[in-house]
Every structure is written in C-alpha cells, then in structure tokens.
Amino acid sequence: MKRIVLVLLLAIAGLPAAAKVSAPAIFGDNMVLQQQQNVRLWGGSDAREVVVKTSWSGEEFRTPVKEGRWELKVPTPAGSYEPQTLTVSDADSELKWHNVLIGEVWICSGQSNMYMPLRGYTGQPVDEALSTALEAGEYRGRIRMITLPKREAATPQRDFEGRWEVPAPETALRMSATAYFFARALTQALGVPVGIVSTSWGGSKIEAWIDTATLAGLGYNTAKINADPKIESRAKCGLLYNGLIAPAAGFTARGFAWYQGESNRKEAPRYARLMEGLAACWRAQWGDDKNRMPFLYVQIAPHGYGRPADTDAALLVEAQSDALDRIPNAAMISTTDLGNEHCIHPRNKRPVGERLAAAALTKAYKRKLGDALAVRYAGVEFADGKALVRFDNARFGLTPQTAEVTGFEIAGQDGKFYPATARIVTSKPLVEVSAPEVLDPAAVRYSFRNYAPGNLANTLGMPAIPFRTDRATK
C-alpha cells in the first residue's frame, strides 16, 4: 500500500503545474491607464477564455485565448484621481490590480540625460532635487512612473522586471528627473493623473532604438554591424528596441518624449532620417497609422566635448531641427540656454521637463499657449552691411530687449566668421546682426559651436535653436 501511495505522489509531482493567467510587468498595481481610449491589455493563459472586469464601469469583457495568449481592449472614462481596480481572470486563476489611475500616459526614452535620476549622477547633481523629493508625496495620487531596467536583446522581448512606483521622497530620487518634471507640469496643467513609461540607456545610439526592419530600409546592414565585436551593445542595431521598447510596445499612451543625440554627434548627416525612422517605427508598434501620437524631442544641450569651438554637436542640432520637417506631429525642445561646457549632463532638468509639457499641451491637447515652442530660424536678408534675421514662434517679439544679445557670428564672402553685435527689432521677430570686420555680409550663425550658448528667446522664455544660414541644402 505504501508503495502505491509513493508511486501516486511521484506521478503527481511530475505533472506540470496549472498555469495561471498572466500579464507582463507593464500592467500592475499603481499603473496609469490612458483616459478615454480603448486601452489594450494582453498576457498569457492556458484556459480557453479570459475575463476582464473594471471597477469604473462594473462591466465584464471576455476574450478567447489563442495559443496561450490573450488580448483585448477595454474603454476607459475621463481621467480622475479616484483609485480604480482591474481584475483579469480565467477558469483557474485571477489577477487583481489595485490603486489604478485613469489619466495621461507618455513614453519617455533616450540616453543619459533622459535617464538621469532626480538624485543625479556621481558628482553631477540635479537642481532642486532635495526640495522636489521632499514634496513628492503631494503627487502620490497624481504621478506614477515605471522604469524598464537596462537590457539589450537579440530578439524582441515580451516582458521585463519592474513595477509602477508612487512618488515619495525615496522613490522620486530614483525617477528620471526630466520625465518627473514633465509629468509634474502636465498634471498641474491638465488636472488628471500622469503616468510615465521610462525607458532609457546612457551612451546609447539611436540605431539601437530602431527595429532592424526599419534600419534595413534605411540602408543598414544590420547583421554585419551587430556581428562586429568592436561595437557596443548600446550602439548595435535594434538591441535596445528589442529589450526596452518591444516589452512596452502597444501600452496605450498619448505620445512620446525623446532625449538623445550626443552619441550620434559624429553622424549628423544621417541623423534626421534616423529620427524619422524611429518615430515611424514606434508609431507603427503602437498602432498609430495616422500620426496622432505626438513625437516630442529635446535638443542636445551645448557642451564642449573637449573642443568647444568645433561644430560637430551644432551639426547634430541642425539635423534635429531638420527632423521637424520630416516627422509629422512633432516638436523640438530647445536647450541652447541650459548647457555646460564641462559636463554633458546639465543640472537644470526642470526647464526641460516644463518645455516638454508646453509642447505636449500644444501638440497633444491643442491648448493655445502662444509661443510655447522653440524659436526657430525662418529667413535672412542682407543689406547695408547688416543681416536682418527672421524667426518663427516669436509673435510677441524676442528678448532680451535691453541687454546684449549673445551667440551671433557673421561672415562675408570669404566665409570667415567674426563675433557679431545683435540688436532685436522692437516688438518684431527680427534681429539685426553686424560686425565692423564684415562690410558685405553673406552668412550668419547663432550658437553654432559645440559650446556657444546664446540668450535669444521669445517672451515665454523659449530659446532659439542654433542655426546657420550658409548651408547649401538640407
């Protein structure tokens, strides 16, 4: 008899455990779901059917399981600060997510300046970090953030290890500073919760964030590049897309915020096309075939890179500006006033986050904020030994009106540039530029060096993007 019992126990132990209904880590307690959308949910199960029940409506939504996978969409109401629950179950098991908020969701990605936590890096602080962390508890019902761990992968991944975090002094210090300030400004402006999916890796190149099919269409031999042992994983084609974008792809969101470019500053001629490919790739993965999800991005800030007078970083900024003409529904945040010659990570992240929020309000929420976007070069005329430069996004004029305008250079037909005197034409989006060494000007540049911060801005404080007038074609 004992032998029979033992055999039965061994047989039972050998049976596979019943699989429970599952979902990837992008779903969980404390998450934010996009308001007034049919939000996409997905996961795994070994049952025939999965049932989803929402506390905000009390409805049940059913979907069949196919080859161990389930997926469906559920409608969400207008955003509010009232915590909700979401239950996912099959015949044998149940998931229940608590403290769920309905609001606005944004995907924030890039390299080290987006990744930089509120606590800063070693020897590299973030301004207002302590006061912001101490006040974080005031936003526990308004901001949530989930951060994907750094991971490269040869194939697109379905999941990651992580969880949604609620702001508190200790948790806020771990969160992306730029993304946190962005979320804080948005929730204040919109009056609804804001959720951030933070997915960044310092030192990464843009090619790593784009899938290999898109890169192949841009002429990249992805297999050859990825087989090269001299190339870091953070620079190889598609590896960060596979590990850091694919697991979150399709999580219903309002738009994207991108802060990257320093690692590509030596490849400026192809960067605008790569940005166009990145935006198209991500929108496709989110099912956005009508470009409804705004693509916001941040200008790399002025930095010396060991050679402040060189122009490789300025050329990258020029490519970023060119991308505005390639990417539908996009906005570029200027940081011409925020750079640091000796540190590639500017400490003042709050203005970056707030400028992203202003762009989001303009692009995603159709708020009429006047000149809430970066000042951008629009044209130039040369006459009487001077250059008259015209700008967009400066309907109410430019500043500083009563102080020296810095950052301008001017050249004659010989192409030799000299520091210039710049004068703002009162109440107009025009700047008059001249230099005593240049009698017959032919070209103007503004902050067009690795480190040549300027102070030209519109009346909302949005800085002018660096530019040159002496380029042949884009």
How are the secondary structure elements laid out?
Blueprint: H1 2-14, E1 32-34, E2 38-44, E3 49-54, E4 60-64, E5 69-75, E6 80-89, E7 94-110, H2 112-115, H3 129-134, E8 143-147, E9 164-165, H4 169-172, H5 177-190, E10 194-200, H6 212-217, H7 222-226, H8 239-245, E11 255-259, H9 268-285, E12 295-298, H10 312-323, E13 330-333, H11 350-363, E14 376-383, E15 386-392, E16 398-399, E17 408-411, E18 417-419, E19 421-424, E20 430-434, E21 443-446, E22 457-458, E23 467-468
Parallel strand pairs: 1-7, 7-10, 7-11, 8-10, 11-12, 12-13
Antiparallel strand pairs: 2-5, 3-4, 3-6, 6-7, 8-9, 14-15, 15-20, 16-22, 17-18, 17-21, 19-20, 21-23
Tell me about this structure:
With 474 residues, the protein is of the alpha/beta class. It has helices at 2-14, 112-115, 129-134, 169-172, 177-190, 212-217, 222-226, 239-245, 268-285, 312-323, 350-363; strands at residues 32-34, 38-44, 49-54, 60-64, 69-75, 80-89, 94-110, 143-147, 164-165, 194-200, 255-259, 295-298, 330-333, 376-383, 386-392, 398-399, 408-411, 417-419, 421-424, 430-434, 443-446, 457-458, 467-468. The strands form five sheets. Strands 1, 3, 4, 6, 7, 8, 9, 10, 11, 12 and 13 form an eleven-stranded mixed beta sheet that branches. A four-stranded antiparallel beta sheet has the order 14-15-20-19, with no helix packed on it. Helix 9 (268-285) links the parallel strand 11 (255-259) and strand 12 (295-298). It is elongated, with a radius of gyration of 25 Å. The relative contact order is 0.10. Residues 1-17 have low confidence and may be disordered.
